[in-house]
Design a protein that fits this description.
Helices cover about 0% and strands about 45% of the residues. The chain has strands spanning about 5, 10-15, 20-25, 35-40, 45-50, 60, 70-75, 80-85, 90-100, 115, 120-125. The radius of gyration is 13 Å and the shape is globular. By secondary structure, it is an all-beta fold. It is built from no helices and 11 strands. Strands 2, 4, 5, 6, 9, 10 and 11 form a 7-stranded mixed beta sheet that branches.
Length: about 130
């Protein structure tokens, strides 16, 4: 079993930065691909960024490329999402997710992720 707890959300002005954290419990964390998704009311949850189990591969949605950076700290069992140059359209609830199965590839499809956090709200004002 894996539990994921997000933190770091909040209110920020356009152009500002936030860093989201996702603390994971469970002994398979270090071997599982992780990702961040986001969702706004009335819309489907969308992929934002992901990192492979080894940390050697990352993927980003076009909308956040060159602004957001995903990273992981194996020692702390934590995944981070550094968000810079934030825009009002980045406003959403952000969810951390784990593939839950060791050594499988990083994907961008939410149905392939087994474990999810409760979400953290990010609001960007114009």
């Amino acid at each position: 079993q894996v539990q994921l707890v997000e933190s770091g959300g909040g209110l920020v002005q356009a152009g500002g930065s936030l860093r989201l954290s996702c603390a994971a419990s469970g002994r398979t964390f270090s071997n599982c691909a992780m990702a961040w998704f986001r969702q706004t009311p009335g819309k489907e949850r969308e992929f934002v960024a992901g990192i492979s189990w080894s940390g050697g591969d990352t993927k980003y949605a076009d909308a956040v490329k060159d602004r957001f950076t995903i990273s992981r700290d194996i020692i702390k069992s934590t995944v981070y999402l550094q968000m810079n140059s934030l825009k009002p359209e980045d406003t959403a609830v952000y969810y951390c997710a784990s593939r839950g199965v060791p050594f499988v590839p990083l994907t961008t499809t939410q149905s392939t992720y087994v474990y999810w956090g409760q979400g953290t709200q990010v609001t960007v004002s114009s």
